[in-house]
Amino acid sequence: MQTGTVKFFNEARGYGFIVDDESQKEIFVHVTGLGGVVIREKDRVEYEIVDGKKGLNATKVKKI
Fold first, then answer.
1. 14, 49, 54, 55: which has the fewest Cβ within 10 Å?
2. 34 CB burial (10 A radius; 0-12, 13-18, 19+)
3. What is the percent of the chain where pLDDT is above 90?
4. Does position 54 have pLDDT exceeding 90, yes or no?
5. pTM for the complete prediction?
6. Cα gap 61→33, rounded to integer Å
7. For residues 2 and 46, is the Cβ–Cβ distance under 8 A?
8. Under CATH, domain 2-63 is a member of which superfamily?
9. CA separation for the pair 36, 9 (Å, rounded)
């Protein structure tokens, strides 16, 4: 599992970005990858990375 910090998440649109702790890259996160978890800006999270249609996506996101 990767760890990072939520940079931005728009609840109305259902997407945002997580800054990865190791690489400092922004990883796209969609509401479908949250599994019912509610995330907000600056939350610490752990997640898995999968290849999406337009790049890397976070999935199985959990707060830590």
1. 54
2. buried
3. 92
4. no
5. 0.92
6. 6
7. yes
8. Nucleic acid-binding proteins (2.40.50.140)
9. 14
Q: Each residue of 10-29: b (16+ CB within 10 Å) or e?
A: eeeeebbbbebeeeeebbbb
CA 4 to chain centre: 8
Q: Are 28 and 10 in contact (CB under 8 A)?
A: no
Which residue type is seen at 19? V
Which residue has 């970005």 as its token pair? 17
**Which two tokens mark 33?**
């990858």
The answer for residues whose C-beta is within 8 angstroms of residue 36's C-beta and 6 or more apart is none
